[in-house]
Amino acid sequence: MRTFRLALPAGVGYVHRQKTCSLHHNAEGSLAGTKDKRPVPAPYVGKYEDQAEWSLAEQHFASSIWAQDVFVGRILDELDSLKISDNTIVFFSGDNGPEDGHLNFDNGSGPFRGCKASLHEGGIRQQILVRWPNHIQAGSTSDHWFTFWDFLPTAADLANATLPGNIDGKTAVPSLEGRAQDNLTPVYYEFCWGGYNVGSVGSDTATNSHQDNQTATGKPKQCGIQNWAYGSGWAQSYRKNNWKAIRVNEDTNSILLYDLSEDIGEEHNVATQNPDVVQELVKLMDASHTESAAWPKGTASKKCCGNCFTKGGCGGACSGHAQSIVV
Questions:
Q1: Among residues 191, 224, 229, which one has the least CA distance to residue 122?
Q2: Neighbours of 107 (CB within 10 A)
Q3: Residue 312 is part of which domain span?
Q4: CA distance 244 to 96
Q5: Are residues 66 and 127 in the same domain?
Q6: Is this prediction's pTM over 0.90?
Q7: Are 13 and 90 in contact (CB under 8 A)?
Q8: Are residues 156 and 67 in the same domain?
Q9: What is the count of structural domains for the chain?
C-alpha cells in the first residue's frame, strides 16, 4: 500500500487513504501595494524599493514574487522539520501566462506569443514544479504535458482511489517517476474575449487596441513576442501532438494552425498548407465543446460572454442571447 501526503499549489494538503485534511498557507491580513491586483504582505512590500529604474508597480510585482518564494520555502522547511518530506509530494504552478502590463519586465513571456486571456502559448503555457524525494530526481525536467485537469487523476492514482468515468485528464505518475508516457490528455481551451485586438480574424497582423498603449514606464505594451494573431470573439484552441489550432466564432475559413515543433512562437500560420490537419482539429474542437445556456458561445452575429462573473453565468446578459439563467 502506498502512503503519502500531498502538498497542493495553493497551500499544503495532507492526503491519506483513510483521512484527508488540508492546511492552506495564505498571506492575507496586512497587505500593501499599488492597486494593481497584486497586494503584497506588508513586511515584504519594500524589498525592491531601492530599484529606482523600476516603476512602483514593478517594484511591488517583484516583491510579490519574492514573497511567494519565501512562503513556499517556509512550507518546504516545515515539511523537513516534521520529517515528512520523503512521503510528501509538492506541486507548484500558476494558472495562466503573464499579464500584458508586465511583459517588458524580466522578459515575462519568454519565446511565446500572447499573454493572459490569450489562447496562444504565452497565455496558457505554464511550468509545473513537483518535489517528491526518492522518486523524482532533483533538477530533472520532462516534456510531458501536464494540465490542471490531469491533477485529479494523478492524485487519485497516487492514493489508489477510483475515479468516475467522465474525467478528461490522465494520470502523470509515470512521468513523475521518470518513465516514458504518451501525451494523451486532450488540450482544449475555449475563451471569450470582447476586445484587446483588432484586425482580420485569422491574420497575423492584429494590433493592440487598448486606448492606453503605454506601461507606467512609458514602454509600449506587448503581448508575448508580438500581438495576438486573432481578433475578439469566442475562441477555441486544440493541440494534438505538435499541431495547435485556434479558431474564432467557429470561422474555420480563418483558422490558425501552427506546428509547435518548429514554431513555438506561433508566428507562421500553416493552415492553408495542411487542410487535413485543420479538419481533424476542427472535429476535435466541435466534440470537446459542451453547450451551456449559462455560458453561450459566440458567432459572428452573436456576442459571446466574456469575463462575466454573474451568478449562474452570463446567459441573457450577452447581446443576442435571450435566455437568462437563475440558480
A1: 224
A2: 9
A3: 187-317
A4: 17
A5: yes
A6: no
A7: no
A8: yes
A9: 2
Last residue of a domain, one of 176, 198, 230: 176
Q: Is 55 left (phi over 0), alpha (psi -120 to 50) or beta?
A: beta
CA distance 129 to 86: 16
Segment 51-83, tens digit of pLDDT = 999 888 888 888 988 998 999 999 999 999 999
Closest listed residue to residue 100, CA positions, set 120, 76, 75, 129: 120
User: How, if at all, do strands 233-240 and 243-248 pair?
Assistant: antiparallel
Examine residue 325 and state whether it is found in any structural domain, yes or no: no
163-191 residue pLDDT tens: 988 888 999 999 999 899 998 888 999 98
Q: Within its chain, how far is the Cα of 292 from the centroid? A: 22
CA–CA distance from 106 to each of 13, 54, 84, 98 (Å)?
Answer: 32, 11, 36, 11
Kind plus residue range of the DSSP H or E element containing 13? strand 12-15
Q: Return the exposure string of 258-286: e unless at least 16 CB atoms fall within 10 Å of the residue's CB, then b.
A: bbeeeebbbeebebeeeeebbeebbebbe
Give the DSSP H/E element, type plus range, for residue 90: strand 88-93
